[in-house]
Amino acid sequence: MKASVKMALGLAGLLAAISMGTSAQATTITANMGGSSAATPFAQNVPLAVCDAFTSPSVNAPKQFINGNISSPSITAGKLISWSCTQGSNTLVIRYSATGSSDGYLKLQNSEASASSFMPFLDETSTTGCTGPTDTTATIGGVIYHYNQYTGCTTLVNPSGTPPGAPVQIGWADVDGATFHQTGPLVPLTKVTPIDTTGITINKTAIVPFAFVLGNGVQNVNPATGKVTGLVNSLSQEQVIGLFSRQVVDWRQIGLGTAPVNGDGSPAAVGTTADATSPVTLCLRKAGSGTKATLDVTVMVEGVKEVTSGSSDLTQAADGVYFGTSTQDVRDCIQGNSGSSRPAHPHAIGYMEADQGYLVNFPTSGIAQGYLVRMDGYLSYDSSQLTLIPPGDPQVYQKCGKWKYWTIERLNTRTPASSDSNVLTLINSIISKANDPNLIAGMNFTWVAGVNSQVTKNADPGPISFVNTPALSLCNGIN
Which is nearest to 414 in space by CA: 27, 32, 121? Predict the structure, then answer.
């Protein structure tokens, strides 16, 4: 064999070895997250701050997968989100499964190998049922990130497993484990007791505010004429307590009423004759929800609890009490979801995280099927502040201690978080980004970084501590 041929073969072998060595360094690193449905929009954006940044459209930009309705197991659209992206030479897979905050602890009480740590996740390697990709953007920390979004996807990770899915490494929860002590519904019995957090590392992140939403049928009524006079601006805390404890079963008991909504779901015009009866529909969360637990300890008074009797069947149109497993269920209960055969309940009141309430009131398309209502004159995120001259801060009432219905989000991990050093690095990166005050507002416009708030609290019920002297300048003069 000629020397030149030998040299060429040797060089080819060397290049192949180098290539193999290089590819061997590339790793797929996966982190599975689950729990709080309130955290879904935040968890949806955290990966963009962790992955390689793309500031213009690209086929190589991160891929985001969002589920459509899945029949078995039954999972409604929007509860599962998976990302696939690059970070240097590595491929990152970051998944989220939204259920309730109690899972943010319970799924971490056993090892990753235990079936009890599994949750369903969307398979980022499959585009079955998906629509897309669609170039989508999000602005975080002043940077416009591009990613390729797929929606309506239906393939689960390990679908034939018992249970299907994969183990959780990061559990998201709105409240401390000790705050869980709720019941509802009674049939089938859904009850939670305080959760043991021994062996779990709790990482607090941002302030999470919640909101109250009314169906479009609920309006003010002129008692002299019996005509509706427009949407309700504010309820008192006492009225909220009366509604959710079922002491108030008809809106007329608190001086309000209802009128039939228009064909498109919009509110009846001012001057429409009010209904003769105005039954209240409650759209609640099941026990295990951090949103529910926060309401219990921040709004409801000692000894007065939410009603526990009702139905979990959101396909029913009658007025009554309905329990859902996620924020999406509460939204569906109020505004309807034809894709899931869920009718709207125009006489309803429900609760959800503030950003989701805002989206009900100000949908990205179509007619709003519900609206935000203040409590004691305040909202946690008040967009009317933006119409002032000069514009005010829409979070002023949250930051300055006027709004009561809020908590501090937790990102929980085992101790240690993972035995895999690559996964551990990814988990720490996610937690770090979730705590960056420069990124928090971009990842969820209603969340507040602790350093930007006048108020904080060590326990979910409070007491609230006022932490800056002098007060933040925006808090001057709002009392």
Answer: 32
Tokens of 28: 């797929």
Task: Supply the CATH classification number for the domain 210-399.
Answer: 3.40.190.10
**b/e sequence 68-96, b meaning 16+ C-beta within 10 Å:** bbbeeeebbbbbbbbbbbebeebbbbbbb
> pLDDT, tens digit, for every residue of 186-223?
999 999 999 999 999 999 999 999 999 999 999 999 99
Q: Is the pLDDT of residue 12 over 90?
A: no
d(CA 311, CA 187): 8
Is the peptide bond preceding residue 194 cis, with omega within 30 degrees of 0?
no
Residue type, 461: P
Per-residue pLDDT at 25: 61
CA distance linking residue 453 with residue 189, whole number of Å: 39
Rounded to whole angstroms, the Cα distance separating 295 from 306 reads: 9
pTM of the model: 0.91
The domain segmentation of the chain, as residue ranges, is 26-173+416-448, 210-399
Contact between 334 and 215 under an 8 Å Cβ cutoff? The reply is yes
